[in-house]
Inverse folding.
């Protein structure tokens, strides 16, 4: 007993390896690599449009696809950059516009992908797109580094996408009678794009007034959403 009692005491907590804290660093500026990725993504979108076209598009169709490819290419390039930075050994600070650009890229990828699925296999492509967009919009809200201003914007976007989908699911799948709330779903779908557009412009204007320092990828994300929403209203 004496020999055992004389053994040195070992604190178990000292044996635990603490994970080193890696401070987030500012992402490097966009370079030629991002531009080449953008152009490549534009070419991918144009190839997808050509594959989905039932007949050769005219001049107007070609010009429309070329204009849309700018937004699609930017979103997909932003998604690729976002994923590459998340997998990098360094920890990069993700700005709100980077989240928006990645979400838009993922949404547009789902939008193009569902076009290749036969109609008999997919009953509601718009429902799938709204569900996917809602899921993507939840992810940045889980980030502690997202500023309150942009959390409010993204939460508004999530509400406008998820609320109509939830109302339709409660009515058609569960057979619940929503009463006056049943008219809320189509109304939210009608005001979705204008409200999101106004929210993005107001948030960008507030940050410009506050002289908040943002990277080019942040502003590209905001502009890509505005570009897509405006073109979607006319095309």
């Amino acid at each position: 007993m004496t020999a055992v009692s004389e053994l040195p005491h070992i604190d178990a907590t000292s044996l635990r390896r603490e994970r080193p804290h890696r401070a987030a660093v500012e992402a490097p500026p966009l370079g030629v690599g991002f531009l080449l990725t953008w152009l490549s993504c534009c070419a991918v979108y144009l190839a997808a449009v050509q594959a989905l076209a039932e007949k050769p598009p005219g001049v107007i169709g070609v010009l429309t696809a070329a204009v849309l490819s700018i937004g699609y290419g930017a979103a997909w390039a932003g998604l690729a950059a976002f994923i590459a930075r998340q997998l990098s050994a360094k920890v990069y600070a993700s700005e709100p516009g980077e989240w928006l650009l990645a979400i838009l890229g993922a949404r547009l990828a789902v939008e193009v992908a569902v076009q290749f699925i036969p109609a008999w296999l997919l009953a509601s492509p718009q429902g799938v797109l709204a569900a996917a967009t809602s899921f993507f919009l939840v992810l940045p809200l889980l980030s502690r580094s997202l500023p309150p201003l942009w959390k409010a914007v993204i939460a508004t976007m999530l509400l406008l996408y998820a609320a109509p989908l939830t109302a339709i699911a409660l009515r058609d799948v569960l057979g619940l009678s929503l009463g006056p709330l049943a008219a809320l779903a189509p109304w939210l779908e009608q005001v979705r794009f204008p409200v999101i557009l106004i929210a993005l412009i107001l948030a960008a204007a507030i940050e410009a007034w506050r002289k908040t320092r943002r990277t080019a990828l942040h502003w590209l994300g905001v502009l890509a959403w505005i570009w897509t929403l405006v073109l979607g209203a006319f095309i």
